Amino acid sequence: MEAVRDAGVVVTGAGGGIGAALARRFAAAGARVVVNDLDGVKARVVAEEIGGVAVPGDASAIVAEARDVLDGRVDVYCANAGLASGGTEAADEKVWALAWDVNVMAHVRAAHELIPDWLERGSGRFVSTVSAAGLLTMVGAAPYSVTKHGAYAFAEWLSLTYRHRGVKVHAICPQGVRTDMLANTGSAGDLVLQPTAIEPEAVADALFAGIEEDRFLILPHPEVAGYYQARATDPDRWLTNMNHIQQKWEADDR
């Protein structure tokens, strides 16, 4: 793809799952890829496989190092690292704080580092792995749902603020994806996400189709568009239907 050939690309949380699939797809398209993950061993394995460079560490603090590795230029930044925090409003405040830091503030910090250079050049691409939970919600996972709404809102804000200055933004909102994160969602994930779960490579395919079509919202599960429309058209009916799922989950989980 011409849009990413020779581009300097950073993918966070790329030691496995969606991040690894994105890194492989960008590398296959001719991009120069920095593979980031908290797990340095996993990052190096993926980087070696695709001919990229591993930059392990906290996703919110590696932009400067990644820029150096890419000869001073980051063209595409994939804010993919995320934390699937379950629980209700009663979850410990440390759980809420960590979910906010990883799922939202890491994106904000990266953009703070990237946007000035992109505006000066008149080009740049920010890819946010959000989740359908950021458009809708997820039973049994208040911290995750709330912070993914925040991630979506920030991606939307970036797009409406800077698109006329050459900054392109994509928000990827899949439902279930067959990753370790899905496996760790327990019975709620089994009920809501597993029946329609897709492979990480399908998410990468959806992103590349969205890049070619210059679309902001990327829906690897096309049916999410209908759910999102139903939510906007009749919120009370949508919430009632979601509450029925909540009740079924509670009954099944007893």
From TrEMBL:
Keywords: Oxidoreductase. Signal peptide: none annotated. PROSITE patterns: ADH_SHORT. InterPro entries: NAD(P)-bd_dom_sf, Sc_DH/Rdtase_CS, SDR_fam. GO terms for molecular function: oxidoreductase activity. Pfam families: adh_short. Belongs to the short-chain dehydrogenases/reductases (SDR) family. This is Oxidoreductase. It comes from Streptomyces flaveus.
